[in-house]
Amino acid sequence: MNLLLQLLANGLVNAALFAMLAVGFGLVWRSLRVFHLAYGGLFVISGYTFRTLAVRVGWPFWASGLATVFLAAIMGWLIELALYRPFYKRHAASGTILIASMGVLVMLENAVAMIFGNELQTVPRSMASVLEFGPVRLTSLQLWAFGIGVTTVSVLWLLVRRLRTFKALWAMGDQPELIPVLGLPLYRLRAMVLAIGTAMAAIPACVITLDLGIDPFVGMSYLLIAAVAVLAGGVDSYGGWVTGAVTLAVLQSLVVWKFSARWMDLVTFGLLVAMLVFRPSGLVAGAKRVEEY
Amino acid sequence: MNYILHILVMIGIYLPLAYSLNLAVGFGGLLSVAHAAFYGIGAYAYSLLLTGVGMHPLIALGAAILITAIIALGTGTIALRFRGDLFLFVTLGFQMITFVILYNWVGLTRGPYGIAGIPRPVVFGLTLRTPLQYAVLAAVVNALTLPLLFALYRSPFGKALKALRENETAAKALGINDKRIFIQAFVLAAAFAAIPGALYASYVTYIDPTSFTLKESIFIAAILLLGGAGNRIGPLIGVLIMLLLPEGLRFVGLPDAMAHNMREIIYGLMLAVLMYLRPQGIAGEYRMG
Amino acid sequence: MNNNLILNNIGKRFGDFWALRGVRASVPSGKITAFIGPNGAGKTTLLHVIAGTLRPDEGSIRYKGETLSGIPPHEVARRGIGRQFQDVRVFGGLTVLDNVLVGMIPHGQQDAYRAWFGTRAARKLMRKYQEKAEEWIVHVGLQDDLKRYARDLSFGQQKLLSMARLFACGFELLLLDEPTAGVSPKMIGKITALIREAVDTRGVTVVLVEHNMAVVAELAYWIHFLHEGRVAFSGERSHVLGNKSVRQMYMGL
Questions:
Q1: Is B284 helix (H, G, I), strand (E, B) or coil?
Q2: Which of A79, A93, B237, C197 is deepest in the core (most CB within 10 A)?
Q3: A291 chain-C contacts, CB cut-off 8 A
């Protein structure tokens, strides 16, 4: 029982991280209707940026984190300029964009590997203090991660609900042609979405780098977590993305409890397939349907 | 010389992989990243039946093809409820699930330890050991397999499949049964991937799950995206480029670890640029979407 | 005279919006029945419902005595109902010849295994289909474009191709969605001639959705006016064309 509680607590911490990842990915999907695969590469670059700033340059963690998030936003903007916008202008098919962004992901990962090497790089730090809540023990880092995650996701949710800009962004996803008609700056909005989305990936990247370390090829795994959370939770709803992330994180913990950590990926993808098969109603809007007339 | 023969064998393994995926992707318009899973299921089924049960290689091959086809039937039934990006994600899910099972169900597949000691085929009493013999075997396998695929390409089935790819609604309005035709294409593509699976397993005599990952699936799909799909020449060009280019880079003289990363960067760059400039690939007939 | 297609109280809604409601009509066989009306009146939705792409929420459709509503589109086609789309939808990546050929092949012959186990008789049959397909392509005037990819044809040529495709398959009932939209007057003449020929010489039944009132006036035997999802007016051609106020109000002529 105690083990279960511990694992659930770990799961909740992961949920906060996954939620940030999911929200960033979902935001780009909802507004631009692209699956931002380069997200994985930008996650990795963010992790290395944080590490370089914290270890090589020697800034305190909080400063490195903030700088990384800021730089990530800029990188997101650059990716929009260099990758998604040219394809958008060509009215490329979504499959084409998907593959191109996959190519960019591969490029980014390997460029990082060439510069920093293929092995895991960690951030030397003192052992995080451990706090006990009854049978559950969590490190201060985990608590920080949870706190930051909940705060960021909630703040963004409020912004999404309230700000008109976001309503415009959602409309952009549904009817992109309308945006210029309504006098809204399409390209600036797109760039903003990519900036925010990438920044949302940078935060968990910093936390995970600090906690576990970073290597050039984890981008794909975290990208897939984000994608599954979004697809399984409900492609077009912010609440769905968060729900998907939480479900995924908690399910993973339960699987570790009942079976073993080895089967975690089975959970992730089993969830994806199961949701696609049994709950397509959440996925119909914006998704490619079989019946097209 | 052995080096060249080795390349020829690898070409002989990747050609059926590319041509079989071409049926689903190029002719059917169903971009899938599960092909390495079927390749792997074929390789594992063959190897397990050969080493575990002591089956005759040809029978093991037949059984491996059948097992792969059955699994593909199940997967396809689920995946084909969708099209486009969602279909892709289901195939992605399936690929990952297959890898997890191959890696973790140690009782069945021996997990990360892999299967060793896969016997080389024996033809008329001669055990095929040398690279030359293997290259000949690969050529024979291709000579037997590819014409079957080409026959599918130009048959009424192939035409109906292309019609569905071009415009599913219009094709259905002509009476073409989308469910039936698509599932046949998906299953056949998978079944034909089992053959190079067996060939590969018996060539390297040791297999483990790391040869059949998502990365491998993407590699095979990239062959088609680069070389072209929907016809007979595209996959050939794709295979030649994707297999020979890295070898060519070897001679440029980068330190080994960096060479690998460089190859990948070029590969990623090629994909991105090609999708921008020429989404139908170098010699393809079908362009995505 | 037979009424082989009967629409009985058809209703179709999307959320709270009823695109069609209480649509009742009989389509006499061997004649041209036109559905006209303003944009958004539900004409294309009606075609979708007949063709099986959409399921009606109310009512039923019967064709040749059997219920049609609720069966999937490819089954509807196999019952002898062909369909031409407003945006044509030829198979761009197939040649003109293959466009016509692919629908002609009997559906039993389309399975994969036939590629390997075809009999000589089956191959002879395929040659016959090819000849027939070529005849139809010549008939609509596309003989110079046989080997071209359909995506390289002009819009008007694609319309002709889609008609050849339908005729070659031998459909007894054709659903035509604005067949003369977006083409030159000369092409309109060609298309209407082909439609008229199909009806007069081969007894094909046609359900025509059109905006071009001159074409409707020329071709239609029976006219239904759809407005906001309901049939506001129905009449036989002499009735409609002979009545000045009806003509003006519903057809603007």
A1: coil
A2: A79
A3: 53
Banded model confidence at residue C2, pLDDT cuts 50, 70, 90? low
**B170 touches A at CB < 8 Å:** no
Q: Which residues contact A133 (CB under 8 A, 6 or more apart)?
A: A9
Q: Give domain status of residue A293, yes or no.
A: no
Distance from CA of C226 to the nearest CA of A (A): 20
What does the alpha-carbon distance between residue C45 and residue C223 come to, in Å, rounded to a whole number?
A: 17
Q: What is the total count of domains within chain A?
A: 1
Report the CATH number that the domain containing residue A114 is assigned in CATH.
1.10.3470
ipTM score for this prediction: 0.91
Inter-chain CB proximity A266 and B168 less than 8 Å: no
* A205 in any annotated domain: yes
HSE-up (13 A, CA, CB side) for residue B51: 22
Which domain covers residue A78, as residue numbers? 2-121+137-283
Neighbours of A, requiring at least 3 CB pairs below 8 Å, are: B, C
The single residue listed with the structure tokens 């999937």 is C72
Please name the chains neighbouring B, where neighbouring means 3+ C-beta pairs under 8 angstroms.
Answer: A, C
What proportion of chain A, given as a percentage, has pLDDT over 70?
95
pLDDT, residue A281, reads 54
B135-156 CB burial, b ≥16 within 10 A, e <16 = bbbbeebbeebbebbebbbebb
Contact A99 B94 (CB under 8 A): no
**CB contact (8 A) between residue B166 and residue C93:** yes
Tally of domains in chain B? 1
Mean pLDDT of C54-78: 91
Q: How far is CA B246 from CA A113, A213, B35, B37, in A?
A: 18, 31, 22, 23
Q: Is residue A208 part of a domain?
A: yes
Distance CA A126, CA B156 (A): 69
The CATH number of the domain covering residues in C3-90+170-251: 3.40.50.300
pTM to 2 decimal places: 0.91
Cβ distance C53 to B155 less than 8 Å, yes or no, reads no
Angle at C162 between CA C156 and CA C168, to 5 degrees: 135
Instruction: Tell the residue number behind the tokens 């010389």, with chain if given.
Output: B1
Asked whether the beta carbons of residue B261 and residue A263 sit closer than 8 angstroms, the reply is: no
pLDDT in tens, A229-240: 998 888 788 888
Residue C90: its pLDDT value, please? Answer: 94
Q: Distance from first CA to last CA of chain A, Å, rounded?
A: 54
CA distance to A216, B74, B177, C24, C165, per residue, from C79 (Å): 58, 30, 13, 21, 16
Give the Cα separation of A250 and C219 in Å (integer). Answer: 66
Our CA-based measurement puts residue A270 at a distance from the nearest CA of chain B, in whole angstroms, of 7
Q: Is B83 on the interface with A (CB under 8 A)?
A: yes
Q: Is C49 near chain A, with CB under 8 Å?
A: no
Asked if residue B279 is part of any domain, the answer here is no
Query: Is the model's pLDDT at C47 over the cut of 80?
Result: yes
Q: Is B122 domain-assigned?
A: yes
Averaged over C62-91, what is the pLDDT?
Answer: 91
If you average pLDDT over residues C31-42, what whole number do you get? 88
Question: Could you tell me which chain A residue has the CA closest to the CA of B93?
Answer: A269
Chain C: closest CA distance from residue A87 (Å): 22
Q: Is B287 domain-assigned?
A: no
- B150: pLDDT strictly greater than 50: yes
Nearest-Å Rg of the Cα atoms of chain C is 19
| Partner residue opposite C94 with nearest CB, options B155, B166, B181 | B166
Q: Does some domain include residue B191?
A: yes
Residue A288 lies in a domain: no
Q: Where are the domains of chain C?
A: 3-90+170-251
Q: In C, residues 59-88, which contact B (CB 8 Å cutoff)?
A: 72-74, 77-78, 82-83, 85
What share of chain C in percent tops pLDDT 70?
98
